[in-house]
Design goal:
two-stranded parallel sheet, alpha+beta, 4 strands, 54 residues
Length: 54
């Protein structure tokens, strides 16, 4: 599981009693709320977006 600092902070503010375990903390969220650098199109593929064949 990936996380961004903004997401971890939000959880800590709302639920300070919850322990958070992640595999990697990426550097930030972009203006669309995507984790950067993230996994690229892995999320799209996992949720059914078509694969572009080149």
């Amino acid at each position: 599981m990936l996380a961004a600092p903004e997401g971890i902070e939000r959880i800590r503010e709302r639920h300070p009693e919850v322990e958070i375990f992640v595999a990697k903390v990426d550097r930030e969220l972009n203006d669309k709320g995507y984790i950067l650098p993230g996994l690229g199109d892995a999320g799209d593929r996992a949720f059914g977006a078509p694969v572009k064949v080149q």
